[in-house]
Amino acid sequence: MLPRVLALVLLALPGSVCGPTVENPIEESLRETILAEIQTVRRQAGLEPLELHPALCEIARDEVEAVAASGGTPGSAGHIPATTRRLYRAGYAPHAWTEGSLIGTSDEGILDQWRRARPEWFAENVAGDFEHVGIGVARHRGRPVVTLVMALAKRTVEWRQAAPLADLPAVRALVLATVNEIRRAHGRDPLTADGMLDVAAQRHAEDMQRRGYYDHDSPEGESSRQRVKATGYKGARTVGENIAKGLFTPDEVVHRWMNSSGHRRNILTKRVTEMGLGVAVGVNEADELEVLWVQVFASR
Question: What mean pLDDT is reported for the chain?
Answer without folding.
Answer: 90
